[in-house]
Design goal:
Number of strands: 2
Number of domains: 2
CATH class of the largest domain: Mainly Alpha
Shape: elongated
Helix content: 55-70%
Distance between the termini: 85 Å
Structural class: mainly alpha
CATH architecture of the largest domain: Orthogonal Bundle
Number of helices: 7
Order of helices and strands: HHHHHEEHH
Length: 154
Amino acid sequence: MSRPGIEWYRGVEKLRVKKDLENNPELIDRLGWYKERFISWCAGQRLIYEADIFDEVAEFEDRFIKSRLYNTDLKLWKKLRKEVFERDNYTCQYCGQVGGELEPDHIIPIAKGGTNDKENLATSCKRCNRQKRDKTLEEFNAWKDAWKAGVANG
């Protein structure tokens, strides 16, 4: 009788990861729409390393959820982007422009500890997103007010 292949072991580990998540529902909430990607990634990690669901979730968050977009799965990003645009009725949340060239904006910038979670994303027109850059919402609003005051005062 031959030994099972690597995919069999990965399948067993996926079941174990799912069971660990079921026993810790707060971790499912933390993972959000990344849950399926986490299960696949974690199963592969468990083929090499000892299982610890809390350490695995923390490492996954650091590597994939809190990372810049070039580390994000493109299909997942496009899905999330569409969900954000639909939620916001294709309207810039900063100036109210409807339609046009829209982009998802990180309300709390990645550079300041923000994540790619849907709750941290807002629909932004290209102009507002370029002006906001890595400012927080409060910093951006203060910048806009100062800019408007400077223009009004000449």
